[in-house]
UniProtKB/TrEMBL annotation:
The chain crosses the membrane at residues 190-211, 259-278, 320-341. It comes from Anisodus acutangulus. InterPro entries: CASTOR/POLLUX/SYM8-like (IPR044849), CASTOR/POLLUX/SYM8_dom (IPR010420), NAD(P)-bd_dom_sf (IPR036291), RCK_N (IPR003148). Residues 104-117 have a biased composition (Polar residues). It comes from the Eukaryota. Gene3D superfamilies: NAD(P)-binding Rossmann-like Domain. This is RCK N-terminal domain-containing protein. Belongs to the castor/pollux (TC 1.A.1.23) family. Residues 1-61, 103-151 are annotated as: Disordered.
Length: 948
């Protein structure tokens, strides 16, 4: 070696031959610390000279390196040639100097290596490659050093450690490449381990089969030796033949067990092979078919997983079948494995496998390593299958319980009443249906709504009503879905009631229309009729057009509006309507009586001791119902009689009683006088109510309207509703803008001058029952309080007897006195508010929801009753009236009720009940109609009048 001046340096160790350096002008890394930051462990990161160095050729046998010599010459070599260790440690494509060519490392064979020289290499030379060729500008230099693998690996570790200390950012790419190579090396080592395990398993199985064959050969040789050494006689010949037969059987068993062992291994390996190479199967098929598909396809594994997922989702018994298949496979595979490693027959092995699957403790008696291992594996699989079976059974039971709890199970009923929807009217509707079914021992009512089954049952239980044998079944679902309708046996129901929702009128009617469309789409058809509760009268024709003859509509808002007007003009009519519409007292029934064919209606009227005939259903006129027909009408074959009775099985025609008309006053109805009526609040169908008042009131009447709607908007809304304001002849509209729950707004009205005051459920709060009833009750109390202070006090003796219970309360007494002057009709939506109004007895109220529920229940029981109610509620035709007793009798006259009915026929009226002066309620369809009794002129009679 040479120093900086070029002179040779003596060898510090003369016993060792000196080896020339691999690179003449290079710098090696020493163990000494650098003198300055510039002289770091990696001085080769900077390039001194761009010119390529020249490399002299050295023979591999001339000299060797020493650590001291390489250290002393490193600085001069780097300075002269500008080539550092980095030039051969890092390839050019990893470093910042991309101009340099790559360094190709060529390894030589092991026979050419000198182990003595490799063991004595200095520390700095361990990082050098064995054969390095550098190509740059056409020059090629090769170094023929041959280090062994150990120094190379050590150099790589040192190199990885040193690469962290380099501050040049250009080396970051090489660092990531090295880490990637390290991960790849770890993955390769893992794959080698797997390969080694597979090899060991295959080798052990092959060795086992080899040993079994050797044992078979030795047994065969043993038998041959015994045959040679034994004496040949008959006995021994027989023994030998027997042994030969047993040996053949054994060899046959040995061969079959070998085949079974091969099958066990093959079946065990096949799933792993398929799992790993399954995605390549389509490509192999394409290659065999010589097809080239360039389009991207979904891997076969994903397609199979998707098919399994769909199968488990669509078919409910797929999980059970999969579990059954897994059990059978485990029994068969386990039996095959036991047969391969055991000594028994195949059937015995199958039985043992089943016993291990069924009871995991049976494998404790097994003897031998192989049978014990197989039995433990089979028992483990059996425990897994048993756990899966428990999970499936538990899930099935939980799903069934949830289905029952949430109301998803099917209703197997017929001839039941089906209620679609949920509203506040449902409670009173169920009560009326239960009362109607009382005579037949109860019925079945099914409710289908978009609510949870438990919530519906809890709300129904809160009614605290005895359903008298009627069972109410709740199901959760949508009436718009045919599957949910079929779930409640819609085709077998004798009546279907569609309740209006709690939305606004248009949305509620639109939903009812969709429900009707769903009902018409039932393939099996409908056995019963459909009763639809509508919210707006204008939407009724569309629903009837879609539903046809099966649809009966009840416009709740219109019915209540007209009923309020009738009750305002005739005090006490609300209670009578409650008795007629509900099933608790008397109601309408239509039935045919053949024994009455050919009998005139005047005789039919007094032919029923327990009922009151009101009309006739004419068979020849398409089933038209005539209410209050002429006395001379004779019943024909097929005609039916409309009556008011307690129940449909409580009346029948009897013998004609003796009736004496006698003399009675011939008083005509008094003329109508103009009236002043006040509307507090704004209703959606207020235009229809004004038209009804126009038809019922006398000319010169006034209608005052107090609400928060501006006057200009009122006229516009009334005109849009079809009301011709300029064409009103009998009434005059008087507008007053104000809030009916504010006292100063009400004090601006002449409340003491009104004949009737109607407190309407305002349109702005009609969706909230509690809020609406609160406003109505507050308006009622304010009006009565203002009236009591403006009207003159009356003598306490003039207070009726029914009000004497409140004589100790001054404000109640004053309100009762004021109530004798004017009639107040309150539209109450909640039955709980009814008690507050009825206790105070300061208003003749109307319970909207309960009356509508009664009408729905009556039409559900018999759809023909809907035509009767439509005529009685209309402004034209027959109507329900309250008439004074002076029209039918003299004071203190003693006659029977049949006589009064005969006298009423002289006025083209049908008397259906009466109310005694001292009584609080009217009696409809009284019992004992032929009994004589005294009557007073203070009594009133309830009649059906033609309204002329």
């Amino acid at each position: 070696m040479a120093d900086r001046d070029g002179a040779p340096t003596p060898n510090p160790n003369p016993n060792k031959p000196e080896r020339p350096p691999l690179l003449k002008k290079s710098k090696t890394i020493t163990d000494k610390a650098p003198a300055s930051p510039s002289s770091s462990h990696f001085p080769a990161v900077r390039r001194v000279s761009p010119t390529p160095p020249s490399f002299p050729r050295f023979s591999s046998e001339s000299h060797t390196y020493s650590a001291a010599t390489s250290t002393s010459t490193s600085t001069s070599n780097d300075a002269n040639f500008g080539f550092g260790d980095r030039d051969y440690v890092y390839p050019s494509f990893l470093g910042p100097h991309t101009v340099r060519s790559r360094v190709n490392v060529k390894s030589t064979s092991k026979s050419q290596r000198n182990p003595l020289q490799l063991s004595k290499l200095p520390a700095g030379s361990e990082s050098m490659p064995s054969n390095l060729s550098c190509e740059e500008g056409g020059a090629k230099v090769e170094s023929k050093m041959k280090p062994n693998t150990k120094p190379k690996l050590k150099a790589e570790k040192d190199l990885n450690a040193l690469s962290i200390q380099v501050s040049n950012p250009a080396l970051s790419g090489s660092t990531s490449a090295i880490s990637s190579n390290a991960r790849r090396a770890s993955g390769n080592s893992y794959s080698w381990i797997l390969f080694l395990l597979k090899f060991v398993c295959t080798l052990s199985v092959s060795h086992t089969l080899y040993l079994r064959n050797e044992v078979s050969k030795l047994q065969k040789e043993n038998i041959s030796l015994r045959r040679v050494c034994s004496h040949v006689d008959l006995a021994s010949a027989g023994v030998m033949e027997l042994e030969e037969v047993n040996t053949l059987v054994y060899f046959g068993n040995a061969d079959s067990r070998t085949v079974a062992l091969y099958m066990v291994v093959f079946i065990l390996v096949i799933p792993f092979v398929l799992y790993k190479y399954l995605d390549y199967l389509p490509r192999i098929i394409d290659l065999l078919k010589r097809k080239c598909t360039k389009k991207e396809e979904v891997p076969l594994k994903k397609r199979i997983a998707y098919m399994v997922d769909v199968c488990f989702s669509v078919y409910p018994y797929a999980k059970l079948l999969a579990l059954l298949f897994a059990t059978l496979f485990l029994i068969g595979y386990g039996g095959l494995a036991l047969y391969a490693v055991g000594d028994g027959s195949f059937t015995e092995a199958i039985w043992l496998s089943w016993s291990f699957v069924a009871d995991s403790g049976n494998h404790a008696d097994m003897v031998g390593a192989g049978p014990r291992i197989v039995s433990v594996l089979i028992s483990s699989g059996g425990m897994l299958i048993f756990a899966m079976m428990l999970g499936l059974v538990s899930d099935a039971i939980s799903e069934k319980v949830d289905s029952l709890r949430k109301g998803k199970s099917e209703v197997i009923e017929s001839n039941h009443i089906l209620v679609l929807g949920w509203s506040d009217k449902l409670g009173s509707l169920l009560k009326q249906l239960a009362i109607a079914n009382k005579s037949i021992g109860g019925g079945v009512v099914v409710v289908l709504a978009e609510r949870d089954k438990e919530e519906m049952e809890m709300d129904i239980a809160k009614l605290e009503f005895n359903f008298m044998g009627t069972s109410v079944i709740c199901r959760s679902g949508s009436p718009l879905i045919l599957a949910d309708l079929k779930k409640v046996s819609v085709s077998k129901a004798r009546a279907i009631i569609v309740l209006a929702s709690d939305e606004n009128a248009d949305q509620s009617d639109a939903r009812a229309l969709r429900v009707v469309l769903s009902l018409t789409g039932v393939r099996e058809g409908l056995r019963g009729h459909v009763v639809v509760e509508m919210s707006d009268l204008d939407n009724e024709p569309l629903v009837k057009l879609v539903g046809g003859e099966l649809i009966e509509t009840v416009v709740a808002h219109d019915v209540i509006g007209r009923l309020m007007i009738q009750c305002a003009l005739q005090p006490g009519l609300a209670q009578i309507w409650e008795d007629i519409l509900g099933f608790e007292n008397a109601e309408f029934y239509i039935k045919r009586w053949p024994q009455l064919d050919g009998v005139p209606f005047e005789d039919v009227l007094v032919s029923f001791p327990e009922a009151i005939p009101c009309g006739v259903k004419v068979a020849t006129d398409g089933g038209k119902i005539i209410i209050n027909p002429d006395d001379r009408y004779v019943l024909k074959e097929g005609d039916e009689v409309l009556v008011i009775a307690e129940d449909d099985d409580t009346y029948a025609p009897g013998l004609l009683p003796e009736v004496n008309k006698g003399l009675f006053p011939r008083i005509t109805d008094p003329p109508k006088y103009p009236e002043r009526i006040l509307f507090c609040g704004w209703r959606r169908d207020i235009d229809d109510m004004i038209m009804v008042l126009e038809a019922l009131l006398a000319p010169g009447s006034e209608l005052w309207m107090c609400n928060e709607v501006p006057e200009k908007d009122r006229e516009r809304k009334l005109t849009e509703g079809g009301l011709d304001i300029s064409g009103l002849e009998n009434i005059k509209l008087v507008h007053h803008v104000g809030n009916a729950v504010i006292r100063r707004h009400l004090e601006g009205l002449p409340l003491e001058t009104f004949d009737s005051i109607l407190i309407l459920a305002d349109e702005s709060v009609e969706d909230s029952i509690v809020h609406s009833d609160s406003r109505s009750l507050a308006t009622l109390l304010l009006i009565r309080d203002i009236q009591s202070k403006r009207l003159p006090n009356k003598d306490a003796r003039s207070i009726p007897l029914r009000h004497s219970v409140f004589s100790q309360s001054s404000w109640i007494r004053e309100m009762q006195q004021a109530s004798n002057r004017s009639i107040i009709i309150s539209e109450i939506l909640d039955s709980r508010t009814r008690n507050l109004v009825s206790v105070s007895r300061i208003s003749d109220y109307v319970l909207s929801n309960e009356l509508v529920s009664m009408a729905l229940a009556m039409v559900a029981e018999d759809k023909q009753i809907n035509r009767v109610l439509e005529e009685l509620f209309a402004e034209e035709g027959n109507e329900l009236c309250i008439k004074s007793a002076e029209f039918y009798l003299y004071d203190q006259e003693e006659i029977c009720f049949y006589d009064i009915m005969r006298r009423g026929r002289q006025r083209q009226e049908i008397v259906i009940g009466y109310r005694i002066a001292a009584a609080e309620r009217a009696v409809i369809n009284p019992a004992g109609k032929s009994e004589q009794r005294k009557w007073s002129l203070d009594d009133v009679f309830v009649v059906i009048s033609s309204g002329d």
